[in-house]
């Protein structure tokens, strides 16, 4: 997502001891840190052009591999680097987990993020939304009004576990090469197909508008397509929600004591309007699609590339699920701890997002530097996650490090935060963990994976996405 594309920062007061760093305990900055304000290091900035020329003339700058450029900056300037681009708020990029902890701490009550501006504008222009943009694009009170109501039910494990049978069905069908919305029996006019196409178009246009800002001056073709696909999705989601409400009434008559599903819980919340829920349903698309696709490809790649880890994961799957395709139960899913460790490790090594952005709402001091209100901090989890001082064998795929007894030692709690942290962290964390665990478990149950290429290449657009050939083979297990 573009909102994740912005840079990630880290800041650690120098007075912190190594023990405190490894414990990850939060302490107030020392008086020494607060006593003097220094200039934050970074590439040379000119009065109007800022760092533009320094950055563009650097042979190592490649916007598709921005993380490599940041890595270079951290090497030259240290763990906190200032970048001022013309017409943009000053950006500070951070690579030390202890500094990231501070940024999260300072911004915890009002976590403001740069949003998807084109989606924001399209919603504000559409009367349906009544100038309420939804959680992916709003900040401040309007963001919190919705997030505080939708967050708890959507992030509650028991609620997400209700969807194990559905997600498992999709995984089994997909592996059996029958894709629900791509069913050849659907015509272009079928509701599922319209919705599917509109969702793809919406995502494409949101991301294109982040790259090319002409839509800010006049409604470009891409912006108009964005508006059109948003309209289609809004109509479909609105209608679906009304139908769901009717079904809910029937179900309540039949069985007044049934425990409410996730959607029923949202509908029962009198503080959430019908339109809030429709907006939220659509918000799950830009948040969840590219990230989960990127994460699943990386996980397949790593399991294929490390056959001994794949064998260990397969052992767990065979022990818990056996070899038949009877539906996975929530209890079985809870037992797949090694699969969960492979997921965590793949998100450390090759996360979908470069990091998390926070726009400061107050001046703050970190490492003796003043970071000013309005500046934008990018906490580069994709870089700190690979830091050898934070993770032993940092470049290798070692899922065991995440097992409960931490065989490779303790890890700083802010060093690998692929879903971010705090009130604004990814709302889809439980959903994506569940989808990915089921997908991997079902795949390993039926297939052996092999990788016939070199290291996976990725480029960073909105999220990191694999580029080039993807020579992954699936061989049916005996
Ligand atoms: C591996 C998969 C995923 C990763 C790595 C990921 C990562 C992230 C990150 C880093 C953020 C920014 C949080 C912040 O600013 O503090 C975020 C926000 C968000 N994610 Fe995810 N995400 C994933 C999957 C999903 C899924 C499956 C959904 C929906 C079903 C989803 C929905 C959202 C939404 C709606 C937000 C905005 C939350 C807000 O601003 O309140 N994500 N995600």
Any descriptors?
disordered N terminus; 478 residues; binds protoporphyrin IX containing FE; alpha+beta; single chain; two-stranded antiparallel ribbon; four-stranded mixed beta sheet
What does this structure look like?
The protein has a domain at 2-114 and 356-384. α11 (191-211) packs across α12 (221-254) and α14 packs across α17. It has a four-stranded mixed beta sheet, sandwiched between helices. Strands 4-5 form a two-stranded antiparallel ribbon. The chain has a two-stranded antiparallel sheet with strand order 7-10. It is built from 19 helices and ten strands. It is an alpha+beta fold and 478 residues long. The model is unreliable at 1-36 (pLDDT under 50). β1 (80-83) and β2 form a beta hairpin. Helices cover 49% and strands 8% of the residues. The two termini are 40 Å apart. Protoporphyrin IX containing FE binds next to α14 and α19.
